[in-house]
Amino acid sequence: MCTANRFRSPLAEAFFKAKVAALNKPEEWQVESAGTWVNESLPPTLEAMEEAKKRHLNVDQHRSRIVNPSLMRQANIILTMESGQKEALAHEFPKFKGKIFQLTELGGGIPYDIPDPYSTKESPVVIAKELEELIDNKFPLIYQYFVLNA
């Protein structure tokens, strides 16, 4: 989950889908992204499409959507980019609080927010690389959580 569902979360979704595809068990996984404050049905940003293409991934068909009760109910794990998103989701959907995590908090350590390049003016290239590295490093932990809580 991210704010607009047009840069960070579509890229994270593509990175996760690539990891899942490598498991040869894609039928066991459904990876989706949504946002907390979204204008619905917008395409990914040009920067998201460029960063995906650099990695031989495609996000062109993605359209922004807002998180909803159905998505929350279906999910085994919900990952957010920022602490404020985690708090907002836990407040709006208290029944699902136990499966909401910041991406950076999995595996211990001090959680931190993954910046939104459109509100912080940080480089989309740097943010995309950070997301890719986080998902590469944390995927085994996320997979383990998924297997234990499926």
General description of the model:
The structure is a single chain. The protein contains six helices and two strands; from the N terminus they run H-H-H-E-H-E-H-H. By secondary structure, it is mostly helical. It has a single domain, classed as Rossmann fold (3-Layer(aba) Sandwich), CATH 3.40.50.2300. It has a two-stranded parallel sheet. Helix 1 runs parallel beside helix 2 and helix 1 packs across helix 6. The mean pLDDT is 93.
Quickly describe the structure.
This protein is mainly alpha-helical and 150 residues long. The protein has helices at 8-23, 46-54, 69-74, 83-92, 117-120, 124-149, and strands at 78-80, 100-102. The protein has a two-stranded parallel sheet.
Set down the secondary structure blueprint.
Elements: H1 8-23, H2 46-54, H3 69-74, E1 78-80, H4 83-92, E2 100-102, H5 117-120, H6 124-149
Parallel strand pairs: 1-2
Helix pairs in contact: 1-2, 1-6
Percent of residues in beta strands? under 5%
What overall form do the CA principal axes indicate?
Answer: globular
- The number of distinct helices, counting runs of at least 4 residues, comes to 6
Instruction: Give average pLDDT, whole number.
Output: 93
Q: Could you name the CATH topology?
A: Rossmann fold
Order of helices and strands: HHHEHEHH
Biggest sheet statistics: 2 strands, parallel
Q: What is the rounded Rg?
A: 14 Å
Strand arrangement across the biggest beta sheet: 1-2
Helix share, percent: 40-55%
Number of domains: 1
**Which residues form runs of ≥5 with pLDDT under 50?**
none
CATH homologous superfamily placement: Response regulator
Helix/strand/pairing category: mainly alpha
